[in-house]
Amino acid sequence: MREPIVSGMFYQADPVELRAEIERCFKNSEFGPGSLPDKTKKSNILGAIIPHAGYQFSGPCAAFAYKEIASTEKPDIFVILGTNHITGRGVYSLKDDFKTPLGIAKTDKEFISALNIPESIPIHAQEHSIEVQLPFLQYLFENITIAPIIVGVDDYKSIAEKIFNTAKTQNKRIFPIASSDFTHYGITYGYLPFTENRKENLYKLDKEAVSYIERLDSEAFLLFCREKQATICGQFAIATIIELCKLLGAEKAELLKYYTSGDITKDYNNAVGYASIVFR
User: Fold this and answer.
1) What is the DSSP string of 167-201?
2) How far, in Å, CA of 143 to CA of 128, rounded?
3) Which ranges of the chain have pLDDT less than 70?
4) CA separation (Å) from 10 to 120, 133, 173, 215?
C-alpha cells in the first residue's frame, strides 16, 4: 500500500473536511469554475494537464479540468503521469494501491505489468504529484482504478506508444492525466530570467509554453523548455500526454484556466504558475 505523504499539508486529512475543501475549489468564483460539476453534461475530452500544489493554491485551477472530467464516462483506468521530483530522470511505475483519506485507489496490475516499465517503491513513496490528483478523482467517481507512472527525462514518445498499445491490446479505456505545475519563479526556485514586471512576464512565459501544448507540438514544447531553462516541473509528463492524446485522437488542447500563486498571495517575488488544460 502506498500511504499518503502530503495529507494534512497539501489537502485536508479528515475525509469530511477534504470533501468540503474540494467543493470549495469548485465553488471558488475568483480562481475556480464557480460551481460544482454537473454530471448530466457530456464532455468529449481525452486527457488533461492538471497542477499538483497545495489545494489552497492550485485546487481551484485543478477544479476546471475536473469539472470537465466529471462529465466524461468513467474510464477503465486513469493513467496518471506524475512529475519526477526525486531523480529527475527515468520512468517508474508502481503496482501498489494508493491510500488517501477518501479511500483506496486500486492499481490495474495486469495493465502495469504489460507496460514493462520499471517499478520503484522508494521513488513513488517520496513523490507527491500523483497522490495530489487522487482525492479529486475519488470525489467524482467511486472505486477508481489507476496506473501511476512517474515520468522524468526519457524517450517520452515510446512511453506514450506503450501506454496506448497496452490499452488497445487489453481493450481498456484509459483517461490520461499529466500532473504538473508550470514556471517556478524566484530565488526560492533558483530561476530569475527577469526581475521587473514579474506578473506580466511570468504570464507571458507560461502562455508561450501553453501555446505549444495547444498545437500538440511536444518537440517545440521541450525545445522551449530547454532554451528558456524552464522550471516547469512535469515537462516530460506533459510531452508524454501530448503524444498519448494524439494517439487517442486528440486534435487540439484547450487552456481552461491559468493563474499563479502570486495572484493569491500577492507576492510575485517567488511564484508558481498553474494551468488546467484539456485535450479534445
Assistant:
1) HHHTT--EEEEEE----EEBGGGTB-S-SSSHHHH
2) 21
3) none
4) 23, 11, 30, 32
Instruction: Give the tens place of pLDDT for each residue, 178-205.
Output: 999 999 999 999 999 999 999 999 999 9
Q: Is the pTM of this model over 0.90?
A: yes
The tens digit of pLDDT for each residue in 85-129 reads 988 899 999 999 999 999 999 999 999 999 999 999 999 999 999
pLDDT at residue 86, rounded to an integer: 87
- Judge whether 238 and 152 are in contact, CB under 8 Å: no
* Residue 225 parent element (H or E): helix 218-227
Give me 16's grid cell.
469530511
The Cα–Cα gap between 240 and 65 comes to 18
Distance, CA of 88 to CA of 223 (rounded, Å): 17
The amino acid that residue 117 corresponds to is I
CATH class of 15-279: alpha beta
Q: Can you tell me the distance from the alpha carbon of 260 to that of 251, in angstroms, rounded to the nearest whole number? A: 27
Q: Residues 198, 153, 85, 278: what is their CA dihedral angle, to the nearest 10 degrees? A: 60
Distance CA 127, CA 114 (A): 23
